[in-house]
Amino acid sequence: MARAIVVGMSGSDGVVPELSRGTLRTLQRASGDLAAASVAEMEERLPWFRRMPADQRAGVLLLIQSGVAGFVSWLHDPQQAIRLTAEAFRSAPKDLSRWVSLRQTVELVRIALELFEQLLPKLADGDAERALLTEGVLRYGREIAFSAATSYAAAAEARGAWDARLEALVVDGIVRGDAEESLLSRATALGWDPAAEATVLVGNPPSDDPPAVIFEVRSRAARISRPVLLSVQGSRLVVVLGGETESGDALVRLADAFGAGAVVAGPSVSSLADAHRSASDALSGLRAVVGWPAAPRPVRSLDLLPERALAGDPEAEWQLVDRIARPLEESGGALLETVDAFLEVGGVLEACARRLFVHPNTVRYRLRRVTELTGRNANDPRDALVLRVALSVGRLARARGLW
């Protein structure tokens, strides 16, 4: 005789009626038919299951057969075998989860258990065994459901860890200026639109706990409905913000996710493929921003061109030449002469006019033309500094034969 098993529906002595060896053998022989019947029921009730490729449906069939076999093993030894079966079901969804979601897995398990509850009691020998099988199916099904949920949770954690590593690789690649193809393929795997505008922000992380930093940045990005890629690189936080930043509001709100200190935003570029230029300028600005204590937060790297040039950034020097010195020189000598004179007399309009022997209105007109050409207003103290440094850098570059 088979030994008695305890499943919780026992009498006063804690023992339930035995399953006969004949019933156990019948269950073992019926495992294949039960699995096939379950798959047939799934195909009938679940349209998405019918659309699955044959090999994936076959994988579900094998999983159900394994479940029935595990159920029979558990009936032999309910304490140890259910642990082994739970482990088997934890490992199975690692493959299953690639093409079946957790919600869909719950639907599959529910249909299989409904069919087992309907068919298994018919295989029992007598009412006592039917009651035993019914409760056994319920308890075993609960264990399977918990195992599947645990497996999907573990898979989600693993995917999250992998996504975090992949995201760090993408951001590191942007900072280093890696090959476009590899960077874009990795970013696409993370759900980033390669054609979206991108702006790189750099600054100090708000804490020493990387998961907390990631949560803070993502929370703020979610509030403004913007995609982000980020990486904590030692004492530096690098964030790639997707979408336009013309208004600057998104930059200001995301800057609140950074720690104390300056936050520098590189220029917005048309796609992620050019994001290395934004990162390079932003990092250059972060190194030079100490030269402008009153810099806003965040500050654009373009607004730090004088400090970057003084710190030895050749790209900043070239941008000052290209944006300011060259347009002024090519416009004719009058504008360049007026800017020089205006800066030399400390921004006093009448003194500039006397030095140039022109009417003050002529000086005003020329300064307006300077603003139109360069975007810099010589009457503004900050813009006056930019103009002065740009003209000095331009003359030094010309003396070296660079333009």
From TrEMBL:
PANTHER family listed in its UniProt record: CARBOHYDRATE DIACID REGULATOR, PUCR FAMILY TRANSCRIPTIONAL REGULATOR
Limits of the CdaR GGDEF-like domain: 177-288
Record domain PucR C-terminal helix-turn-helix: where: 335-392
Origin species: Saccharothrix espanaensis (strain ATCC 51144 / DSM 44229 / JCM 9112 / NBRC 15066 / NRRL 15764)
Organism superkingdom: Bacteria
Protein name: Transcriptional regulator, PucR family
Family according to the record: Belongs to the CdaR family.
